[in-house]
Amino acid sequence: MINVIPKPNNITFKKGDCFIYKDRVLLHIDPELADIEKFVSKCLGVKTEKADDESHIEFIFDDTLPEEVYTLRAEGYEAKIFAGSYSGAFYGLMTLSQLLLSDRDDSETLTCPQLIIEKDSPKYSWRGLQLDESRHFFGKETVKKYLDFMAMYKLNRFHWHLTDDQGWRIEIEKYPLLTEIGSYRKGSQLHAWNCPEYEEIPHFGYYTKDDIREIIAYAKERCIEIIPEIDFPAHCASAIAAYNDLACRNIPCEVFDFCGDVLAKEKGLKNWNRPLCLGKDKTLDFVKDVVDEVADLFPFPYFHIGGDEAPTNEWKKCPDCQKRIKDNKLKNEVNLQAWFTNEINAFLKSKGKTMIGWNEVLASKSTDTDVIGQYWVSQNDKNVLRHLKNGGKIILSKHKSFYFDMAYDYCTPKETYTYEPEKSKIKKELKKGVLGVEGEMWTEWITNEDHVFFMLFNRGLALSENAWTNRKDFKDFKSRLQSHKAFMDKMGIYYGNDHITMKKNKGLKKRQAKKYGFTVKHNDAEFRLDGIHNKNMRVKAKQALKEKKKREEYEKNAKGIDELIDSALLKAAGYILEEDA
Ligand code: ACM
Ligand code: ZN
């Protein structure tokens, strides 16, 4: 029994154990795989500088092995990883580091069962995880932790949701107001869509292009491609707040400090959900300029334009949009969005990029089959099936199984683990169009890093195993999951209480409805009920208090010392003056 997640596809166990000495490892890396060196000590915690012959770790180049594929042999005092690519070597190392985790602290050696993992390769090429930093901005250090988590579990696509109604988080040089105005909101609605509680604390932050380059480099070293998502034509309030004339009839708005209807109504806002005006050439120029800068910044092949939840009522009222419909002989407003999507798609293609959009972009028959659809909406979607039949590609993110912002009670780790395309009526013959699966971390009600990882841990590991292995077994997965908490502790990642995060909680809905006035599907109540977190927060608060006292004490003394020094200097100066005299 080994605790590796995702479970390798082909293992042969041999009798006895493999031993690697912690402080004297002979490391050999074939030159084709040289870049892996910096991760060896970091991931295994072994010392290679005092090497002798006693234990070996070898990375052997084998050009018959495709990208991401590795073979690992752990026998005697040797661990050998065979790979034909950097990604293969990296994933071999991730597996080895999990194998050797068990007795890292007290013995001279790292130990695992003797075994051979032969040509371990992923089930899906797309193993994605998304993070919404518009609703809440977490910053570079959290993103790097998120990427570390992804790398450990062989997830290879980071979908970065950088713009939405509640904040614009990426520097665009041609339009500085996007970040000057669009990255700042006055306050935040709390807890849930239908909860009117509000916190009057400004929320702001954005990434400069240099920040983004730093994150790109960090991700690349960990075999992760980043897909930026810049939302058009809806979810654009932060852009319209900065440049009002992007809206139909130039109707201005502020960066939203609310999500959904409850607070909008309280503020007396009607028709608050307004998309970009697709009738003005100016809008099209703006979108292309932004796409141009973002596409040039990210070196990867994909670009996500959102495209979801665009209301059509504004376009119906707008003379410019109606003129566009007439001039292009479009049938209706849905086709107006499709016309716009096709324009941006053509522009992206001219830059060598592939467009991704939520499954709403597949609503029109005119959508290019090269566009990748991301399937999130829960009902059986005929447009997705048509797209697949036409040879198009999709990513599966059905919210019952992959929306990690949803309560565990609604989207359990088992839902994530057991999901197969058949659940979305995708039959065997259409499965070749499925690139893979992706977990979504929307953050309307997730305000801090601990909460992000609380929502992620169990489901993120379930996602990883679903995306990689052909040997799924949920019971076995659950037993392996436990040992991974040690990794989380090491990475400073919070993982919550199994009592809440592993299953549906009978009765919780009712109790929460009573306690908070809303039900459990999509809110922060589980995190607030999570005992370990609350205990941690109390411990953290106590520690902070102690630190504060210590600092005050120190500062008092420091002041004393400064005074002593000052008086000594004065005295010295006095002597000097006396001597001079
Ligand atoms: C979505 O959740 N609106 C894609
Ligand atoms: Zn318009």
Describe it.
With 581 residues, the chain is an alpha/beta fold. The protein folds into 3 domains: 11-120, Chitobiase/beta-hexosaminidase domain 2-like (Chitobiase, domain 2, 2-Layer Sandwich); 126-230 and 256-264 and 281-306 and 334-501, Glycosidases (TIM Barrel), CATH 3.20.20; 508-551, no CATH class. 40% of the residues lie in helices and 18% in strands. The chain contains 21 helices and 20 strands. The strands form 5 sheets. It has an 8-stranded parallel barrel, surrounded by 5 helices. It has a 6-stranded mixed sheet with strand order 1-6-4-5-3-2, covered by helices on one side. It has a two-stranded antiparallel ribbon with strand order 9-10. It is globular. It starts with 10 loop residues before the first strand and ends with a helix. It binds acetamide and zinc ion (ZN). The site of acetamide (ACM) has 4 residues, from loops.
> Which ligands does the model contain, each kind named once?
acetamide, zinc ion
Low-confidence stretches: 572-581
Strand content: 15-25%
Number of H/I helices:
21
- Biggest sheet: strand arrangement: 7-8-15-16-17-18-19-20
Number of strands: 20
CATH architecture field of the largest domain: Alpha-Beta Barrel
Oligomer: single chain
